[in-house]
Amino acid sequence: MSDTAEKVKKIVVEHLGVEEAKVTAEASFIDDLGADSLDTVELVMAFEEAFGVEIPDDAAEKITTVKDAIDYIEAQKAA
Amino acid sequence: MFGSLTTPRRVVVTGMGIACPLGVGVANVWQRMLAGESGIGPIRLFDAKDLPARIAGEVPTGSKTEGKLDFNEWIPVKDQKKMDRFIQFALVAAVEAVEDSGWVPESEDDRNATGVMIGSGIGGLPTIAENAQMVAQGKSRRLSPFFIPSALINLASGHVSIRYGFKGPNHAVVTACATGVHALGDAARLIALGDADVMVAGGTEAAICDIGMAGFCAARALSTGFNDTPTEASRPWDEGRDGFVMGEGAGVVVLEEYEHAKKRGAKIYAEVIGYGMSGDAYHITAPAEGHDGAYRAMRATLKNAGITPDQIQYVNAHGTSTPMGDDLELEAVEKLFGEACKGLAMSSTKSAIGHLLGAAGAVEGIFSILAIRDGVAPPTLNLHKPSRESVIDRVALQPQQRNIEIALSNSFGFGGTNASILFRKAP
What is the pTM of this model? Predict the structure, then answer.
């Protein structure tokens, strides 16, 4: 697993208070991990802070799973 | 509007919960209070070295088994960041009160008939201050989405209702230092008038932060002369008093319609028999001459209950330890009680825990109920030499065994808002 994936999962575990095993790539923040809309806003802010990237609102709306987050961040870092 | 009402229904207290500077848990706090202990000490929550007032009554940190507070034992960690400290205190006290009452609404009708009314004087001040600093540093976009719901006063009631599924009236009182009494009284009225059968009611406050302490210092309201002897700082009616000591915490009770409580075999602590209010219409912070507003609030409360002063054995005073307020309240009580001052006990439990602002009336209501239950008037600590003599026994230094049938509790707030409430021994 990439460093980005590890770090994303760690942030998700911390912010949503869920077990690490549940944080699979396909897991949806809202449907599988018990987040509400405000939790996802905060999660995106935590990603921005941790990775030094900016995630505009329209992009943030499309980040609904753990994999979405990892892919978006890796694309930003590669750019 | 009130067409369906014939006579008001009776309201009793069936559950109680406290988090205050003497600790967590009603039994623990009461025991320490009767032992004459003080919850006042140096401020640890932030660095107060630049302030003239560097002491306060903080809720002690530690495990539940020690009678102290560890939020992790009460609230999931991931939820804590969604609530300012004042909401967390409210939840802790509400959990104790609800569990103590044994009330678990099982039908939708029962849930609809169970409401929450927990108020606060100031609300999420530390959270507001932190976020204001971020904005000032140009980090507006970094504010948490939980900032607003964490700071709003009615979110204490909101969180309690969400935790338990209480779907009845959801309300919050904001009347500065009178909040607690207003919340208990208004919630009791909702039950009396049929809006709910059960109300979880109380007050909560967490204003021991730099901006809160600095603000009250600026208003010249706090004690500043006892930074090296904090347990002596809160000294209601004593000639050496020089201002109130800030406290924090929450008090929550479960109020219930009498027949409802009886039917389910609930333990009943006391009955709420009267509630009254007034406004000073005088000054933003100073009480009116002769504490006329306090006098009228107490008079309204007795009238509401249909009793006379000689039926009351104990008064839990507002008594904040400010030079002006204490003696004016005493004067108002003397005027109302007249001949009945003889034999009356009146103490200020703020001498042990400081002034919990919006939570004060709720925790002091609980102390009044306990005074009735146990037949004991809690002491006024540090009252060595009263600045004003009185025939009323102010229960200096030591608790007193007394037969207490009816107790009156007073709370008065900035803005000239006054409220009193009367409790009677369980029917």
Answer: 0.95
